Amino acid sequence: EPRQDMSGLRILITAGRNAEPIDPVRFVTNRSTGKMGYAIAEAAVQRGALVTLVTGPSELRPPAGITTISVQTGQEMHDAVMAHVDVQDVIIGAAAVADYRPKLRHEQKLKKKDGPLVIEFERNPDILLEVGKRKRADQVLVGFAAETENVLENARGKLERKQADLFVANDVSQPGAGFGTDTNIVTLVDRAGDTPLPLLQKRDVADQILNRVLELRERGPVS
Ligand code: PMT
Fold first, then answer.
1. In-domain check, residue 4
2. What's the CA gap between 20 and 182, in Å, rounded?
3. Residue 54: inside a domain, yes or no?
4. Which UniProt keywords apply (predicted)?
5. ipTM
6. Which amino acids bring their CB within 6 angstroms of ligand 1?
7. Mind listing the pLDDT tens digit for each residue in 188-218?
8. Does some domain include residue 147?
């Protein structure tokens, strides 16, 4: 039985990918499986937290004893997060939210034509950015940065821009890290500095993130 050090804390976690429809039979997506976000949900509920998991399409079974909200698109994920964010103590964005969606959702299946197919994309809302703007001082906001270059600089840039308290920098080009694997290699980036972690099971990365979240709650925001 793990320590109940998150007893009664409300935590919302986003996980997985989005599916952005082109027409009734096609969609645009990415490689996120949900493993990282589900591992955080599992760790948090075992430590006594009240967990809300907002998840895109995933093959995984959500852990028992939590509230799960299943969504498809980035807009739906945004709306679900915004509807539940105010009562949370901790918000963690582990989802690989679709930055763009096809501008048109065709009502009928697109027919093959001669020549190339051009699909125009428009921006989805940035969920973390919006949460950062309306965040209260007593809420802890955590983002993930999936990067392939300039990992720490980019993560620190996102920490500031999105007014988060902690960013989990994830070099997704390293073997054993990032999308689909059971392990991850991350650096915790906050206003006190960088903490590189070794290759760990995602479940253990989850506990390290939650440990830091509790420290940040005790310490209060550094500004
Ligand atoms: O699901 P797995 O297969 O286990 O893979 C795990 C993972 C690689 C998806 C995960 O570890 C990870 O890095 N998640 C973040 C992926 C991502 O979209 O990173 P980003 O750098 O594009 O986004 C930065 C942050 O803003 C993220 O917290 C993201 O959830 C959030 N965001 C991004 C875009 C958007 N429109 N809204 C957001 O809230």
1. no
2. 26
3. yes
4. Decarboxylase, Flavoprotein, FMN, Ligase, Lyase, Magnesium, Metal-binding, Multifunctional enzyme, Signal
5. 0.99
6. 14, 16, 32-36, 74, 93-97, 99, 124, 126-128, 143-146, 158, 170, 172, 178-180
7. 999 999 999 999 999 999 999 999 999 999 9
8. yes
Six token digits for residue 86: 């105010």
3-class SS at 93? strand
Helix boundaries (H) for the chain: 35-46, 74-84, 127-134, 151-161, 202-219
Catalytic annotation on 18?
Answer: no
**Residue 215 CA, ligand 1 centroid: distance in Å:** 23
**Angle at CA of residue 47, ends 218 and 68, nearest 5°:** 110
3-state secondary structure of 77: helix
**What ligand 1 atom has the least distance to the C-alpha of 130?**
39
Number of domains in the chain: 1
Can you state the angle between helices 35-46 and 202-219, rounded to 10 degrees?
A: 60
Enclosing domain of residue 110: 10-219
211 Cα–ligand 1 center, Å: 20
- Which of 18, 32, 135 has the most ligand 1 atoms within 8 A of CB, as the residue to mutate? 32
- Domain holding 31: CATH number? 3.40.50.10300
Closest ligand 1 atom to the C-alpha of 158? 24
Question: Which atom belonging to ligand 1 lies closest to the Cα atom of 162?
Answer: 26
How do 121-123 and 10-15 pair as beta strands?
A: unpaired
Note the pLDDT tens digit of each residue in 45-74: 999 999 999 999 999 999 999 999 999 999
Question: What gap in Å lies between CA 10 and CA 77, rounded to an integer?
Answer: 18
